[in-house]
Amino acid sequence: MSEPQAAGGPQTEALIKASRRITPEDTEEVRHLTLEVLDPAFQFVEGQSIGVLVPGPHPFGNAVHLRRYSIANARPMPLDEGVVIELLVRRCFYLDEVSGERYPGIASNYLCDAQPGDKITITGPYPSPFRMPLDNRANLLMIGTGTGIAPFRAFAQHIYERRGDWNGQVRLFYGGRTGLDLMYANDETSDLANYYDEKTFKAFRALGTRPLMRSSEALAQGLEAHAEETLRLMREPSTQVFISGLRKTAEAFNRVMAEQAGGEQAWETLKQSLIEDQRWSELFYD
Predict the structure, then answer these.
(1) What cofactor does this one take (predicted)?
(2) What 8-state DSSP symbol labels residue 263?
């Protein structure tokens, strides 16, 4: 997941260690990048993001272009080597609404074109609204679409690979218009699938069932099949809710939960209690 930002803050150098395309050649390009930060002072926690600085000049005269990307892996174990960061990047293009011309996204194309051995400049890490609870009995409910899957991948790595003692229930719902969108799970057969045998972990994915179906609509379909359990978990005082992705993700989630709760007022009351208890976190992008 990424969001545009003005350049600023401390900068450090990162080395591209690997760049792997995780989508077929005849579809849109999505890459899994592995970066190594050699500065030992650089540290991050799950849910944070970094900024990628693209040297200019750029349109409109700016010297550099900066875009933020969510970190898609858990914090590394203490090592003598550098800090490893993983990113999930879709090569983006934009259409000019007036001329109809197609322009490449500056940061995404810069990263997708980067080769192992290249060095790039990053900023951050930046604070995140997502906070992993310290209590391993907490239930985690994670809802995402598209690139919103990135921080949840990091959460799953942390609690099962790094800690290995998570007792709370973990539920992950993610949706997409096509199988391409679900590649942001980073090859489900060898990544999130690693956690499917955990007694506490369940992941549910939903694809669009008709042409032009939004990823949020696909997500809603998946949620509807498990709405009863989802609502039950949210009513437990130990449950933390995390929502990430396009803003329509929240609209879809609210619609499904309101129907399951018996009406919008009942759902808004429950949601407000989660917010007041600091058990509701969200991160959206346009």
Answers:
(1) FAD
(2) S
Q: Is the pTM of this model over 0.85?
A: no
pLDDT less than 50: residues of the chain? 1-6, 177-190, 208-213
Both tokens of 153, joined, read 């991948």
Q: Per residue in 17-65, pLDDT tens?
A: 999 998 788 877 888 999 999 887 888 888 888 999 999 887 766 778 8
Number of H helices, E strands in the chain: 7, 14
The SS3 assignment for 143 reads strand
Beta strands in the chain (DSSP E): 2-5, 11-21, 30-37, 49-55, 64-70, 83-90, 93-95, 102-104, 119-126, 139-145, 170-176, 201-207, 239-246, 280-285
Length of the chain in residues, anyone?
286
- 234 in Cβ contact with 141 (< 8 Å): yes
What's the rounded Cα separation, in Å, for the pair 2 and 9? 17
Residue 61 burial (CB < 10 Å; 0-12/13-18/19+)? exposed
The position carrying tokens 């803003």 is 247
Beta strand spans in 10-155 (E): 11-21, 30-37, 49-55, 64-70, 83-90, 93-95, 102-104, 119-126, 139-145
